[in-house]
Design goal:
The structure holds 2 protein chains of 2 kinds. By secondary structure, chain A is an alpha/beta fold. Chain A is built from 16 helices and 30 strands. In chain A, the strands form 10 sheets. A 5-stranded parallel β-sheet of chain A has the order 10-7-6-14-25. The model of chain A has no long low-confidence stretch (mean pLDDT 94). The radius of gyration of chain B is 20 Å and the shape is globular. The chains are: A alpha/beta, B alpha/beta.
Chain lengths: 584, 286
């Protein structure tokens, strides 16, 4: 146990002003910890994170030859980096620094001073115990291939591609359709400005096609992704190759997912008659009808070729519905208003919007709502129960019309509205390719089945896997401005890596002890990051440390205990526990 | 039976389907039935199979044996072998299953049908490259697994704790149960690690509990109910009851019985979003 006795630990107890010192007797904590084996000094100080606080640590490292540091202060999320850097500057490996969180875990949540002090002592003891077994971990770097793969060439993918290509890096775009532009190529106008889609999109498409940094593969899909941040190898397949396996291999440093959305299959919601009754359209079908190059040349016509005299627009079909999609699809309110505006502009038909709430939260949206409603669009607050072609003869309903049955919740009565045409504002769901892409990249999806961002507030364009980014409706329903903003965000996140050319890899990863591995492959199955491969020759698992995030799932799964997470070794954890379970 | 077995094994050697065979023989001096490895057709005449063939031979198959290895398999042995293949201990081609129509083996102390065989619902091995004997004559179980575990399930947590403490009390940490178990295949057992020391070596209530709980957890969803652990225990500890309780839970919750099909899957690796998660406080799902 000579190793154990040779450590020289410095412990620093922070007052954090009165944040900690108000509830914790910091001097008592320092005094108690001073007696622990291996502890050379234990000091308390007003603000450890201040420059003088950090200087003190650096000076002590030199003066006392400290080789382990414990800072008992706030959450490591707050200041672990600060003290790792300070230690580093004094020549100590950053992984030999341990935080003990006596603010969030003790002073902020415990009222009784004696209890809080006791608890702090235990927490610091655990940290001292743990740091004793910490080992220096070398930080490896990996070079970044100066190129990006963008999956999906809708408006999100287009924006991200242009941003990256404009910064001088190679972009490969893979698109399953035979054209680029995605869903918005089916639309005629955009809300709330009512600009023509072609005016917005065509210049962008031209830019893409004329940019020699961007290589577009339409009618292709990515079939396999291996490697890790900075060094992905992507196999792409030609979808028109008729079974002949024409595969290309691309080397890229980063990947941006812009796989977009699909419309919920509205024939599943039988009561609205979609697919069964004539002149019941989905929003996107109606959009197509309004295009100059659409099936009616931009005219709004019923199936029999006549212009409708009245149109019902039904909001929240499938969205905000616990039987279908619980979430709000975010764009339907506004495109429904747009549909009402187009109907007003091109026909003399009356329009009825049946809504639960009008969510007009974006820039210029409320104003657009006001304009449409003041120009004669009718708004009925109530979710439609049914659309039927069975007219009630006693009510004088016109022959051949569609009857929209709803509760007008403002009047609190059931109403029947005969119309000529029904537009269903259907829910957005993740692209049908999402399942395959998820399996290919092993990234997570949230409960709504859209791809999950690393953090909903702080990292909305990143996935949990380094080097793979998200944008547009692949991550959740959103309108065009939000999609463009997120696409530029994802592009700039990817550019951060491409510009630097190297990535630092966190060394707190899992490692396999080859002598103990039984080769059962269970770790491979549970790894969420695709980080574990198999060495057939030696019949053992091998972890790609570039891909490993150190989550520890494999280490916990391994029955033979052949996997250990560096910086979270069994020994560190057991000793930490022994500290936590001590009397304090 | 014996003649058919010997003829079949001879044929396997002659057609070069196997390089060695793991089977049972009666020891010429002691008269005891013991496992044997034979390496040629000439040796086939010593093979036997009867109710005294208690050992689970799947335990004895090693990846570096001269293969393919023929293995005489009872139902439980075959299920265990199946799991070992699933867990990648050796490839399927490494073994040739010689499935024997097993009518149950005896408890060698009493000569009565052993407990494990009373509840056995699968006396034919799922791995059966050749079959010996009359499959229809193997008989049906006289007891259900539930009969063994219901009593424990009815106890409250405190009673259970006492029950298991008493059950494990005679343990001397000899690890015969581990040595007999076909699925205790860790290269270094957790009991043999001392840095950190997970399980204290001296027998006492805490370390007994620690060992037997870890053993049971390591077998959750894997145990094939061959009962070798109990048979091997010199103290007569019924530690296998705990495995049975878990197997009952696994079957009830996931409809999963371990190792029953050739090429069986492993419960821990079968993820289904519709799995019930009632124990996590979530809703019970169909």
């Amino acid at each position: 146990m000579s190793e154990k006795n040779s450590v020289a630990i410095g412990v620093y107890v922070c007052h954090c002003g009165t944040n900690i010192a108000g509830t914790v007797d910091v001097e008592a904590v320092a005094a108690a910890i001073r007696e622990e084996p291996g502890v050379v000094l234990a000091k308390d100080y007003k603000f450890m994170c201040s420059d003088p606080g950090q200087e003190m640590v650096k000076k002590d490292i030199e003066e006392y030859g400290l080789d382990r540091i414990v800072v008992s202060a706030c959450s490591p999320l707050m200041h672990e980096k600060t003290f790792r850097k300070a230690a580093s500057e004094a020549g100590l490996d950053p992984f030999l620094v341990q935080m003990a969180n006596i603010r969030e875990h003790c002073s902020w949540v415990t009222k009784d001073k004696e209890e809080a002090t006791q608890k702090s002592i235990v927490a610091v003891k655990a940290a001292v115990n743990r740091v004793r077994w910490a080992r220096p971990l070398p930080i490896n770097t990996a070079t970044v291939e100066p190129s990006t793969l963008i999956v999906g060439a809708g408006i999100a993918g287009i924006q991200a591609a242009l941003d990256i290509a404009d910064a001088g890096f190679k972009v490969y775009m893979v698109e399953k359709q035979d054209h680029i532009g995605g869903h918005i190529t089916m639309m005629d106008r955009v809300f709330p400005t009512m600009e023509r889609v072609n005016d917005l999109l065509n210049p962008k498409i031209n830019e893409i096609l004329n940019n020699d940094k961007i290589q577009v593969f339409t009618r292709h899909e990515a079939t396999e992704v291996t490697g890790s941040v900075g060094d992905f190898t992507v196999k792409i397949k030609d979808l028109d190759a008729n079974g002949a396996s024409v595969e290309n291999e691309l080397k890229v440093g980063t990947i941006i997912l812009a796989t977009g959305y699909d419309m919920y299959d509205l024939s599943q919601i039988e009561q609205f008659g979609y697919g069964r009754l004539d002149d019941v359209y989905t929003g996107i079908e109606f959009e197509q009808m309004t295009r100059q190059d659409g099936p009616t040349g931009g005219k709004i016509l019923k199936k029999n070729g006549e212009e409708p005299t009245s149109v019902a627009i039904l909001h929240c079909i499938g969205s905000r519905d616990e039987n279908h999609c619980e979430y709000c699809s975010r764009v339907c309110c506004m495109y429904s208003l747009k549909h009402a505006a187009i109907i007003k502009e091109r026909t003399s038909a009356a329009s009825y919007n049946f809504y639960i709430d009008i969510r007009a939260f974006g820039k210029g949206h409320e104003e657009f709502y006001r304009k449409v409603s003041s120009e004669g669009g009718r708004f009925i607050r109530g979710k439609v129960g049914q659309v039927t072609d069975l007219i009630d003869p006693e009510l004088d309903e016109p022959e051949g019309s569609l009857i929209v049955i709803a509760e007008d919740t403002n009047l609190q009565e059931m109403i029947r509205v005969p119309v000529d045409m029904v537009i269903l504002a259907g829910a957005m769901i993740p692209s049908e390719t999402a399942d395959r892409v998820q399996k290919m990249l092993r990234i997570s999806r949230s409960t709504d089945r859209f791809f999950q961002e690393r953090h909903p507030k702080l990292a909305p364009t990143e996935t949990a896997t380094d080097g793979i980014f998200l944008c547009g409706t692949a991550q959740g329903p959103k309108d065009i401005p939000d999609t463009i903003a997120q696409a530029s965000g994802a592009a700039s996140a990817a550019l951060r890596l491409l510009e630097q050319g190297v990535v630092e890899l966190d060394p707190s990863v899992a490692v396999v002890n080859a002598a103990m591995c039984t080769g059962c492959k269970m770790c491979i199955e549970v790894c969420a990051y695709n980080a574990i491969g198999f060495n057939e020759r030696w019949n053992i698992a091998e972890i790609n440390s570039n891909l490993c995030k150190g989550c520890g799932t494999c280490a916990a799964t391994c029955r033979a205990n052949a996997i250990e997470s560096q910086h979270f070794t069994d020994k560190q954890i057991v000793f930490e526990l022994m500290g936590l379970l001590s009397d304090g | 039976m014996n003649q058919a077995l010997r003829d079949e094994v001879r044929k396997l050697f002659e057609t070069e389907k196997v390089k060695s065979v793991l089977g049972y023989r009666q020891h010429p001096l002691t008269g005891e039935v013991t496992p044997v490895i034979i390496k040629s057709a000439d040796e086939a005449d010593q093979l036997i199979f009867d109710k005294r063939c208690v050992y689970n031979l799947s335990r004895a198959v090693l990846a570096d044996m001269d293969g393919p290895v023929g293995v005489v398999l009872k139902g439980c042995d075959g299920r265990a072998l199946n799991m070992r293949i699933t867990e990648n201990d050796f490839p399927r081609e490494h073994v040739v299953g010689i499935a024997v129509a097993c009518q149950g083996v005896v408890d060698t102390a009493t000569d009565d049908l052993s407990e494990r065989c009373q509840r056995c619902h699968m006396r034919m091995s799922p791995i059966a490259d050749v079959t010996i004997g009359d499959e229809s004559a193997v008989g049906k179980p006289t007891k259900t697994r539930a009969e063994f575990v219901d009593e424990i399930r009815a106890m409250n947590p405190k009673q259970r704790a006492t029950f298991w403490k008493d059950t494990f009390a005679p343990c001397t940490h000899c690890y015969a149960c581990r040595q007999a178990c076909p699925l205790c295949n860790c290269k270094v057992c957790i009991t043999d690690k001392n840095n950190p020391q997970w399980i204290e070596t001296s027998p006492k209530p805490s370390s007994n509990m620690m060992w037997h709980l870890i053993r049971a957890f390591h077998h959750a969803g894997r145990c094939v109910d061959c009962g070798e652990c109990e048979r091997a225990c010199p103290e007569g500890i019924k530690m296998h009851l705990l495995d049975l309780c878990i197997a009952e839970d696994v079957e009830e919750m996931f409809g999963f019985v371990t190792g029953v099909e050739d090429g069986a899957q492993w419960q821990f690796l079968l993820y289904d979003p519709n799995d019930p998660d009632s124990w996590l406080g979530g809703p019970e799902r169909g």
